[in-house]
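The instructor's notes for this session suggest beginning with a concrete chain rather than abstract definitions. Hand out the sequence below and ask the class to guess, before any prediction is shown, which regions might be ordered.
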Amino acid sequence: MGNQVSHNWQAGDVGILTFHCSDNFGAMLQAYGLKQCLRSYGVAADIVRYEPPFLTGRHWRIPYFPVKNIWNLAAMGYGFLRNLRAGVLFSRRRKNMERFRKSYLIDEGQPRILFLPGLRKLPYRRYVVGSDQIWNPAITYGLRKAYFGAFKTTRKERVTAYAASLGGAALPEKYRQEFSTLLQNLDAVSVRETGAVPYVQQFFPGKVETVLDPVFFLEKEEWEKVERALGQGEYILAYTTEPNRQMAEYVQALSQKTGLAVVELQAVAGRGANVEATAGPAEFLGYIHYAAYVVTNSFHAAAFSIIFEKQFLVFAHSTVNERLASVLAIHGLGDRLCRNGGGIDVPVDWSAVRARTAAAVKPSREFLIKHVAEGLE
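After discussion, reveal the predicted structure:
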């Protein structure tokens, strides 16, 4: 496996606080892209092993949610039964997730930090918070100080938000004052969704910039070194992050039209015909890379469909569609967002898409270098 991390950990100059500990394809892949980009510029960057139970607990065999209400209690019970039914598939999925995490994200010997006070002992001079939905309180059960750099250490000089996401264009009104206060801990702010800039700019005194998700920092060939190819023959890859009846019907019709089998990639372990529920991030990449078609409502499945230049179609997401629309617009692929069905066979001018990607990557890299890398010796 290419570009594996070393297993002789020594703290670098830059610590990255993100969702690396979440058993989620996109969360781990964006973390890898950001770390590799910084290291390519000679920056000694580490992913901080901040692994709080409010983030990791949802992936346990008996799921844990910090807020106890009727809905979460029901979700815990349902999740346990689902994982129990999945049996060995659950263990295989966790193993693939952990394999990627240990191979590419963290070093052996790095201290594991479960709670905010543990961050105060870290030796890093600079911190990057992001990317991913670090400012989405629905995921983090409220706004979390760690993802704003709101903790004191003896060496901390600067905190930069890179491609931070709210999940949408704005936060619920009840978070307005707290969000404004927490933003003051940051020295530079960039967000992933263009639509979120006006909202964040209300509270931050400096310029709020839009940057690309860090998976776009790495070329297709670099991701090929990380992937594990498991798909056999031509197939349609369907990956949903929430149920979508219109998408399911479209995939079925596309299968009938093309004669291709469907591989359904699931975000949680489960069973079913043609269901792949044991994949980790490396397998996720492989399934996208070798698919004949990709149909999804996932941001990162869309992003890697662009990177691997696939014939793909994106269905809207009920709560986080802003980021899907944004990434497609940046690459000139707005017609890939399905609102009424169809469009997957429309030819794509990939040379034009690559030019737009390069144009968007340039200022994103410049932002990262200016606010994180410059001045480190």
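Then share the key points. The two ends are 31 Å apart (CA to CA). The first helix runs from residue 25 to 40.
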